[in-house]
Specification:
heterodimer; A: 141 residues; VC0802-like; 7 strands; B: 432 residues; alpha/beta; Rossmann fold; GMP Synthetase, Chain A, domain 3; 2 domains; four-stranded antiparallel β-sheet
């Protein structure tokens, strides 16, 4: 139900994002999903990749501030109303979403999210038979 | 044996002062052979034979760095050039460099001073000593080399830079002691950990001599923890030979300044009057055991104080406290005096921060603004709130310490310039 996400600290500096993406590309790391959020002082790049451990080790070796966290990856049909349905389940369970990003592959949407309570969120997924992706399924995307 | 030269290191104060006076008198006579002091003595009416006590030192004129620059290259030399065997020079980034010449005896004495310091912190002839200082004109290279050889260490003149090579030497040769600049010590530790070498288990390192740039007690402790060593603060300056002027003993509470080589005074930098023991002032040094280039009451610009009382180690030579900064490093912002070392002390309290930082002072719309950039270390969270709270906390602590509010920018590890020589911590972009 969870997958590894790498978070990378980005200084607000011209070319910083390109530099990190190039570093990953050169070592054959495939980025499956990515998002950048920023404040006025710094940004955080969050990525899902095909080999999180390899990417993490590579970043560490190159002195990049990064860490691995596990995030939920839920699948839904790419249809009107499915997001609303899914998030309502979390709201009803008293959970808040800390951040979320999503991407669609064919008819399927994949929601990557982090809530304020990981275990409670896992329970919501199981109880409601929501579709999900784990590390093993990730590589087939 | 605890002491390198027990009879000198533990000499009763009275005898030590008698030795100083005798050497001072001799130095004043020979100093007149230098064109600079000959002229200065004539101008100021100094008569060396009128100096009857150590207190009479106060009647003598001061010497400044500008004097050394203006008399570049040989105007300060008091013996014939053919008797000089070595020359060292500062980098001279502003104006003429300063030059120091040595006779053969001067070199022997200097090596003895350094050996005495190293022995004091527990380094012995069976140790493997790796010197990561730049060699060449920089005195930290040859100065420690000759000192370590005199002590009898297997000495590795690794010189500066190339961290991977340094680490290979440390592991291959079983290096036990390093002479290293503090900012580079933390850098080297980071590289070791990144290479999966745990210096506490995988190396034989036990003692570090750290100096050449001011550093806080917090930074020392960080170095000791990272590398699993004891680190001792050493003080030297090229005008006073280089390393070996003063050094911490194993008490790690102040640096013993070798009074058989130099006479130490602490003065108020404005009134030039001596201050009491324990009070901060400018360090002023007089060489009393140097042939080629005697210096009288030399303004070091370093701010420190004499630590009152006896040292439990048994040495009778005075102790100076960790440097408070340099009188010419002091920043004045919005009328507040700030030393970069105060900022470092605050930054080092945060586990989340690395050791590299840069202070930039700028005048924006007639307002002095201070920006502090500091590197994060490995501990990284992807939670914004945590990072923003961290920034807030650091700024609050800085404000308590400095009384002004700086801007703080967290930057990624390794993004600030790395220094293999002295770290540049302050950029003052104001135009005066």
């Amino acid at each position: 139900m969870t997958i590894n996400q790498i978070s990378i600290f980005l200084e607000n500096k011209y070319g910083k994002l390109s530099e990190i993406l190039a570093m990953l590309g050169k070592e054959n790391i495939r980025i499956i999903a990515a998002t950048v959020a920023d404040t006025s002082e710094f940004g955080i790049l969050r990525i899902i990749v095909n080999d999180a451990q390899k990417a993490y080790d590579l970043l560490k070796r190159n002195n990049v501030n990064a860490n691995i966290t596990d995030v939920l990856a839920i699948t839904t049909k790419s249809e009107a109303g499915t997001f609303a349905y899914t998030f309502n389940l979390f709201t009803m369970a008293g959970l808040s979403i800390e951040y979320m990003y999503c991407f669609s592959v064919g008819e399927q949407s994949i929601l990557i999210l982090r809530t304020n309570n990981r275990n409670a969120a896992l329970e919501v997924i199981q109880k409601n038979n929501l579709g999900y992706i784990d590390e093993n399924k990730l590589n087939s995307l | 044996m605890k002491y390198w030269q027990p009879e000198i290191e533990t000499m009763p104060r009275k005898e030590l002062e008698a030795l100083q006076l005798e050497r001072l008198k001799f130095m004043l006579i020979t100093a007149q052979n230098s064109p600079f002091y000959k002229k200065l003595f004539a101008e100021k009416g100094v008569e060396p034979n009128k100096v009857k006590s150590l207190e009479d030192l106060r009647l003598l004129p001061f010497t400044s760095k500008d004097d050394l620059r203006e008399n570049y290259p040989f105007g300060m030399v008091a013996i014939p050039l053919r008797e000089c065997v070595r020359l060292h020079s500062s980098s001279g980034t502003t104006g003429n460099p300063t030059v120091v010449l040595h006779s053969r005896k001067d070199l022997d004495e200097w090596a003895n001073q350094v050996a005495r310091c190293m022995y004091m912190v527990g380094i012995r002839d069976y140790d493997v000593f790796q010197n990561t200082s730049g060699y060449g004109m920089f005195t930290g290279g040859l100065g420690f080399q000759y000192g370590a050889e005199k002590l009898g260490c297997l000495t590795v003149p690794a010189a500066a830079g190339n961290s991977k090579r340094q680490i290979k030497f440390i592991t291959d040769f079983g290096t036990t002691c390093l002479h290293i600049i503090p900012s580079y010590a933390t850098r080297l530790a980071e590289v070791m950990y990144a290479e999966n070498i745990d210096p506490r288990k995988d190396t034989k390192l036990h003692t570090l001599c750290i100096g050449a740039e001011p550093h806080s007690e917090e930074q020392r402790q960080r170095i000791e923890q990272l590398l699993g060593v004891r680190a001792f603060n050493c003080f030297g300056m090229s005008e006073m030979n280089g390393p070996g002027v003063a050094f911490e003993c194993t008490e790690q509470n102040g640096l013993h300044i070798w009074e058989d080589y130099t006479i130490v005074e602490i003065i108020n930098p404005e009134t030039l009057e001596p201050v009491a023991d324990g009070e901060v002032g400018e360090l002023v040094l007089t060489t009393i055991n140097r042939q080629a280039m005697p210096l009288i009451r030399y303004h070091t610009r370093d701010l420190t104080s004499i630590i009152p009382g006896k040292c439990p180690c048994g040495r009778t030579h005075k102790r100076i406290s960790r440097f408070k900064g340099r009188s010419d490093d002091m920043l004045i912002l919005k009328g507040v005096n700030i030393f970069p070392i105060q900022i470092e002390r605050v930054l080092m309290m945060f586990q989340e921060l690395g050791s590299n930082y840069l202070i930039t002072v700028e005048n924006i719309d007639n307002n002095d603004e201070m920006l502090i950039e500091v590197e994060l270390n490995d501990l990284f969270t992807d939670d914004y709130a945590v990072l923003q709270n961290l920034t807030k906390n650091i700024v609050r602590q800085l404000k308590d310490e400095l009384l002004i509010t700086p801007k703080l920018k967290l930057v990624s590890k390794g993004s600030l310039p790395i220094h293999e020589g002295k770290a540049v911590r302050v950029k003052d972009l104001r135009i005066f």
